[in-house]
Every structure is written in structure tokens, then in C-alpha cells.
Amino acid sequence: MTLPPAASPEPVSDITHETLPADLIASAADIFDLPAIRADLFAAFTPGASEAEIRKATVKRLTEAATDGRQVIRDAFEREPFGSRRTTRSYTWLTDGLVTLAFEVATQVLHPKHNPTEGERIAVLAVGGYGRGEMAPFSDVDLLFLTPTKITAWAECVIESMLYILWDLKLKVGHSSRTVRDCVRLGAEDFTIRTAMLEARYLTGNQALAEELDRKLWSDLFEGTEREFVMAKLEERDARHGKQGQRYMVEPNVKEGKGGLRDLQSLFWIIKYVHHTDDVSQLVNKGVFLPEEYETFVQAERFLWAVRTHLHLISGRAVEQLSFDTQPEIAARMGYNDRAGRRAVEWFMQDYFRHATAVGDLTRILLTSLEADHRKAPPLLERIFKRTPDTPKGYTVTHGRLAIEDDAEFLKDPLNLLRIYEEALRTGLLIHPDAMRLIKANLNLIDDKMRNDPRAQKLFLDLLLNHGNPERALRRMNELGVLAQFIPEFAPIVAMMQFNMYHHYTVDEHTIQCLWHLSEIEHGHLKEELVVSSSILKAGVNRRVLYIALLLHDIGKGREEDHAILGARISRTVAPRLGLTKDEAETVEWLVRYHLLMSDMAQKRDIADPRTVRDFAKAVKTRERLDLLTVLTVCDIRGVGPGVWNNWKAALIRALYRQTRRALENGMEVLNRENRGEEAKKALREALYDWSPEDISKESSRHYAPYWQGLHVTGHVIMANLLRGISDDEIRMDIHLDEDRDATRVAFALQDHPGIFSRLTGALALVGANVVDARTFTTRDGYATAMFWIQDADGAPYEDVRIPRLRQMILKTLKGEVVARDAVKDKDKLKKREKAFKVPTSITFDNEGSEIFTIIEVDTRDRGGLLYDITRTLANQNIYIASAVIATYGEQVVDTFYVKDMFGLKLHSQAKRDLIEKKLRQALEEGAERAYS
Asked: How far apart are CA 795 and CA 805, in angstroms?
């Protein structure tokens, strides 16, 4: 191939260092010195070089320039971690240079055309986010190759060569080749294409062709279709939010999530389409945004782009999900520190959610006003016959939303800042954005005088209690700052994120979710799923106490003090201020102080042990408190996030409630072991009606007392059948789905020997089973019986098709064909996302919580093989495990063991307990090293 005669190639494009805004994060020449790189590049081409050699030389020089430029941008950004706008412009500037030089090489060197025809004109345009000049480190490079007519062979060669160069540069290029007519036609059919072309920016090639496209788009496509475009963007936003989920999900998508960059970009698109400007500040002059709202917009854009840029740089690729493993590092890069009992990452994420909320406010203001401006009026008959809710005095209905008739009159009475939410609930109308802005701008009217006004207290209680589901009003009140202004103690938990894998929402959103669940139960929507809670509410409780307690139950979070203790102290002040009587306020304080008690008792203790129920009943004292705490507990667990509540937790809460209610109503003696043992034996005799008296007698006499209260009659029947006729060398198993508990029940019967519990947990660990509950017993004639409830890694029971493999692996392990200790080591590695979490280990011994066992509680970081490591360590210390209760909270697990020593006694010796703790910590540390390696 012969090079063109020009010794110094002429630039094809008009691109200069002034093409983009001057606010780059470093000097343009340091990022990408286009004239110098162009000269170097063309000087590197040797006469007679082949196309492959020219492309190789081009890629080599441009790769060097891109690598150097990206490093300059990265270094500057690390020095200025909030300089996001300058950084995105800098990446755009660098990309523009790469695309421009790739085009010049393709048109001047590889496929020179000295006298192109009219049809051989070509222009290269940046579209989408690249066209807007906003690029993260690994953003897509979206290009439009524009030709006047059907693409020619020459243009096809140019485009192909150019794309090969860009692909070799490892750029992720999205491209299309169209004529001006194609662009107008396709844009009319597809709003995604239309939106991308709205941001088309000329890069290189024939500029007149690009200008022609711009004129045609505005005259033939954009003008007159504003309403259509706005409605399409509204529908697109709703669909995107539905897919991405709540704004307050703790691993948000920075780009597509609610309140994320896509919502900001929607503002840009609509502003440009409707107002013909790229400058958001112009909306202040047009009266769309207030000056402070524009400042909010600027700060949110700056923050979100900084987060996205850090996310790309940390991940080394285009990642948009702000996952747990990236959050701490981004927080550190952006200068956040641990303080006031909270981690840096939690402060960072609280700022993130506050900005996301602000973006939601801004998009709602703009899009709703535009929707109103560009919505078609309904047909006359529809307007005549459509029923309008009764509009209260001082309000009007504008475009289907509740609006304020006279702003000045509205503000004369500060109670209207609460009253409007009640009217919105009563009428079923959404509040107009203009009314929201008025409220937000006048939050100072909610002062101590108003907070202590009985009328305000009544209005707030009515919002919670008297208009169906209060969730919608509370969420809007929270987003606009009304809730935190009316209850200042609520302010610290607004947008507060808890850095763990258990809580799916921020603390304030969790609270609102809990209240929604309470409303759902109260209105009979969960009668079949939540029998106990539904019956409690149907029978009647003090609703004021329950709703306020649920509103305040987590209000103490985020401080160094135990949030239940601090929350109770806060509620002592807040509850009376909300209009509750002294007795009601005391009950609220008790509920907040002990809101975790029932959950902990049910999930961390063996409720088959009479002492557990007795201690819980003594703490609760009255049936009223039991009822209130039960409903609050159910709502609290259900409000944590999707999938957290399941049949297993429901069965535990239900059993604890019924046993405690029975004890409170009939006296504690009903919990007596002997009574329960006789009742269990009677139930077994009735269930085994076809057994001979001799066999029944043998089965009834072979078990010790703890066996009879440790299992339901269903378990007793299973064990009786497994033990019937068993020989010393047999291992018998029964594996079935336990639908009532969302788990697979695995029952064992085999000859007893030391460490049997550990061997069984090792076998289950090898098949990836998570043990959620376990019971083991020894018979008088030397057999071990054990029952485990297990789930898979997704928290689901094993379906029938997987049970044969489960059975096979367990048998191999118990027979010694597979050594669990060695095999488990390969199964306890943590996933990358999970390694961000470290949980301090706590080990406690309790000799008071059970009459005959010592309770060992191990609170630590969850991982594969953990239960096996613990039980193996206890077995090596000659500790007999009677039962294990497993409570998992995301990355944290609390394993509780009811144990005796080798003589069948509690662990009274402090020296023995200290030794056991030392050995457990050693095993946990070794396991953690494997998991994090």
C-alpha cells in the first residue's frame, strides 16, 4: 500500500482543544495531545506498509497514548475525588482523540479518496452518553456513521477499518450506519434511537452532513412531538424503577436505579427536547427549578458521577451495581471516616441515599410539570362522567393531583403541612409537585409549638390509624423532610444504611415497610399466611401503641449505645409528644426496649426446652404485651427484605407465642417436663395405633426425658420407625420435605459413639446444606437419634430430585469413605462480594437458660463448614451436644448449642469453659483464614 503524498497529513476534523469545555481534570495536552500524537502516528508509517502493518502501528501508538492519558486522568481524579464532571469530560476528550485519529488513518492512509463524490461523504457522530460528553472510565463508545445516501463500498471499508482499530484498542463500541432519512424514520419508530440521536455530537468527517441531520431531526421529528416524548420517558422511568426495585435497596444500581444517573439523564433529555437547551441552569430562569433546587441537582450529579467513576476504576470494568465489596473502598477514596459509632461506609451510603432521594424529588418536579403541560385533555364525555373526589376547602385538583389553592393562605396554619397528607389519603390523590415544593421550602413552620399542639398530634395519629395504609403518606413525608421535622429524633436514621447482608433497606425505609406490613395484616390480606398475627389484630389490641412502637422501634440505631436501650429512652420522650397516655407511652417504651426479645428467643434458643418459654413468659408478664410484641416481631422480620420471612420463622414464632400464651393463662406449671413427657408418649401411642403393646412399651421406655419435649409427635413417629428392628451396624435415614418449615428434614438413627453430632454436620456440610435446626438424642440401649432441618445455599428446601445424591453423600461420609475434615476445606471459601464483611466473634456460656444443659452461644461470621468446625471442636473436648439452634442474619450467624460434659453435667468449671472457648476461637480463626484466602 502506498502512503498519500502529503508529508504532514491534514486534519480531517475541526476538533481542537477547545471543542470540549475547558474544565478538564488535567490539561488537554497531558490527557491527549492530538496534534503531537497525530504527527507521531503518521511519521511511524513506512512506505509500502501493508494494511495490517499500518493498523498494528496505529493501535500501538494509540494504545500508548490512551494508557498514558487514562493514567493522567486517574491520578488527577484521585487527588480530586469529587471532580467528577471534569473527569467525565476528560475521558470524553481522550475518546474523541482516539476516534478522530482512527478515522484519519482509515480515510487518509488505508482508504484514501482524493476526489470523493457527493455520495461518498461521511460524518462520524458521538451519540448517547458519549454524545453528551459524559463518560465513565469504561463507558461504551456509541458512534453513528452518517452518509447522505445508501452506504458506498468506500464508506463501508472506512467504517470497517476504523472499527477494527477501535476494537483493538479494547474499546466497547456500539455503532450504526445510517442516512439522514434513516435517522428520522427510525427515530420516529423507536424512542431509544430518538433519545440517542437527541444527543448526537459531531466528531469528525463531513460537518455539513452532521448539520443537515441536526436540522432534519428538529424540523421533521422533534418539533411538535414533545408530549409524546415526555410520556415515553415517564413510562420508561416507571419500567426501569420496577425492574431495579426500591430507591433504598442497600446495593443500588448507580446508573439505572431509582434516583440514579439515568434519572438525571432523563432530565437532560427532556430539557433539551422541550426547552431546546443543554443548560439545566436555564430552568431556573424559566421558573421550573428554584435556585436551591438547581444547586441540589448540581451536587447530586457531581456525587453520583464521582461514585460511578470510582466504581469503574475499582472494578476495572463497566460495573454499575454498588455492591458491598466496592462500597468500603469508594467510601475511603471519597474521604469518609469512621465516627460516632458508625463505619465510614455507612456515612457514605447515607449520603448516597440522600442524593438519590433528591434526584427523585427533582425528576418528579420536572416530569410531572411537563406531563401536565403535554398531556392531552380527556374527551369531553370522560370529563363529564369521571367522578372527582370531594375536594376540601383550600385545595384543588390539578391534572389528577391534589394542589393548593392559595399558597399564602395555606401557610398561615402550619397544621396544613400535616393536613395535606391526610387529605391525600382520604381522597386517594397524589400530591401535586408544586405543593410538595411549598412544603419542603417551609419546613421551619414545624416547630416545638406545633409538635406539642394536640391538634397536630391527632392529625399525625389519624394518618397512621384511620386512612387505610399509611405507607404512601409516610414515605412522601419522609422524602420531603416532614417526618424528621415533626419527630426530630427520627432525623438520624433517615437514609441510614446498615452495612450488612441481612438488612435490604435503609433504616427509615425498613420502618415504613414494617408499618406497611402491619397495615396489610390488619386489613386481612394475610389471614392464611399469618394466622396468629391476624387473629390477634382481629381480637383487638391498642392500635395507637402498636403503630407508634413500630414507628419508633429502630429510632436508636446508628449510635454506639445498644439501639434498643437508646430507642426506649427516646420513645419515653416521643410517645407522649405524639399524644399517647402515660400507660400507652410506658408500653411503647417496653416494646421498643424488648422488640428483639421474641425474635431472639425463637431463633436463638431451643423453644422445646421448658425453661426458654418460662423465661420468656416472665419477661413478657401479660397477655397484652405478648400480643403486641408478637405482631411487632412479625412485622419487623418481614420488613427486613424480600425472602427474610419464611415458614421456618413463622413456625418458631407461632410455637413460642402459643406456648407462652398457654403459660400466662394457665400457669407456669403447664411447662413442667413430666407433664409434657406424658402428653408426648400418649400422642405417640395414638399415632402408632397399629403397633403391638410390647413394641409401644419398648419405644416409650428407651428414651430419656429431653427426647419427649425435644420433638413433635411427627418426629417421634419417624424415629420410632427408624429404630424398630435396627441392628448395630446399620445407618438408617429418613429424608423428607417439611413444608411447614420451608426446609428438608433429615432424620438419623445409628449406633451411638463420641462425636456423632460432628460427623453428621460434616456430612451435611459436604453437600452444601445449611443446617437451620438440629436435635440429637441418645437412647438407653445405645443408639443415637438425630434430626436436622436443612436448606440449600438459596435458603430453599431440597426438592425430591436432589435427595438421592444427598443420601448417598451422607452415607459415604458416615461410613468413612469421605473424610469430612479434608473435604470441607474446599467448600468454605467466601465469594468476593461477601469478603467485605467481618463479624467479631463472641462466645458465651449460660448455665441459667436451661435446667439441665449449658448453653453455648457462638456469634460469628458465617461461612461454609462453620457448624462442622464448631461441633468437631466440641467433640474433641468430650462435649455432648443435645441440640443446636442456628440463626443466620446475612453474613452473621448465631449458633446455639445445648450441651453437657462427658459425665452428663453442666459445664460448671470456669477453667473448662475457658479451654473450650480458646479451642473454639482457634478453630474459627483457622476457618476464617481459609475463607478469606
From this structure: 18
